[in-house]
Protein 1
Amino acid sequence: MGAGPEPVRRRPDASVLVWARLLALVVVVVAIIDEMRPGWSGAHLAVLLLLVAQVASWLTWSLVTSCGMRTHVLVLAVMAASGGAMAPFAPAADVCVGMAALGAGAACEVPFAFGLAALGPAAMAVAVSVTTKSMGPVIGAGTAALGGLLLGVGRHDYKQRADQEATIAVARERAELEHVRAGVLDEKNRLAREIHDVLAHTLGALSVQLEALSALHETDPGNAEKLGEGLRRTKALANEGLAEARRAVQTLREDVAPLEDQLEILCARSGAALQLSGPPRPLSAQVTVALYRVAQESLTNAAKHAPGAAVRVRLEFDSDSVELRVENGPGPTGPGPLSTTGAGYGIDGIEERVRLLGGEVVAGSGQDGGWVVEARLAE
């Protein structure tokens, strides 16, 4: 049909527009009556009927907000046609033609609005030919229709731009909300990784120590000195776990110590040998945490799968990157009793952590039958 969108629902200032339309209707009706007083015969009766149709359509256009597009178009068509037909008798009816054209331009697409606006001059031309009046007033009706159409099209374009801007604003707000939600999810994943790494390392070390105490109690229950030493070691591990939790909190706040200092403490606690290569330099908190977790997870796995094996940790600073290598030989007695514990997500977790920072992780068997984990990050 070529009609435009559904009429826009009334906005908070719509009451002003409604009152303006009703006031204009009163002025036009008074002017028409003054120019051609309606009556009950001949042209006066025709003007009366056309005026009733005009008032009814104008009131519907002004007051009814929930009608569909078909009804809206019909109302505007009646306004245009009745206004044009009255114009030969009362030139003030040209205003009705112009208002109908304005409403058509505001509610419909341009081609269809042009057709509705043309109904007024066309109806006037028919009325002039029937009443044998001069064709001069047709020019006035055409001018009113054209002026109203231009104003209506401008209003239609303004409403479309406003709707587009509102749509863009809603889309932008949704994008911002999605960005915030993605940030929250990233932070949740970050917290989950920190909790996993802290608990896995601390509880793994405690499990190894408790396993050793259990074995000592079974083989030599009367050796109070060794049992006491084992209990002191277990207590020390628990304290270290609490300290590790505090360090994790500091890490989340991006208040971290230099990586080489943290690795020195970690290796001393695990009995691993630490080697530094290249001049140390400050690293970002994210890189520091990622490489520290790689070392922590690797040492935990070495204690579980190759207890008693020699473990070497190498931290190398290059000009534009930093690399961490953790290597352990095979355990003297094979895998430990805790080798089957855990969910098996440790390597996946450190790979995810490093790759999120644009680095890479390689894990596999070493030349001597042990295990090697290498992580490299640009920094």
Protein 2
Amino acid sequence: MRLTEGQRRRRRSAAYDVGMSTLPHARPGTLAEALALPEDARVEFVGGQIVQKAAPSAEHGHAQRALSTELGFRFSRRSGGRFPGGWWILVEVDVQLGGELFRPDITGWRRETMPALPKGRPVATRPDWICEIVSASNARIDRVEKMRAYHQAGVAHYWLVDPQEETLIVQRHSAAGYVTVLAAARGDTVRPEPFEAAELKVGVLFGDEPDE
């Protein structure tokens, strides 16, 4: 019997529910399997494992929204206006790097790298900047597996925002590995690369009110 596309999607979704619900948050698989799952499955393919992204906490969601808003307003626009611009900044977009699949919390491409807004799934053009909001259940993946993969892929800048510790770690690519160029905490006002053209109040990521 030939299945409709809707029936195929439901079967993939059911397979996801069975496969992922019986394991903590990862299982062996392939890139093709990960890409065949529904977009709302929120999975990545890292180190030969299909990894389910953690359900975001309130703190995680706030930090993600606040940072994407702060940077997006100033930078996710064309250059040459009132604000620095020059970037595409997107939230929860599937990105393929080599044979692995990632869904970073926030991703940025310089417009000189990608002149037009990215389309489709996954985006195969290497980002110029990635930020992960650290979750307790996925901290090892963010701090080890993803850091290694992003470095190997040549992602120039990698940020880690930790809502529990209320910290921002800014890292720059080097031949030997990522080098921490800024470590900031709630209460600090910084100009973190590659967005040093504008100030960022770190506390805004953790509940402080932004400037009017």
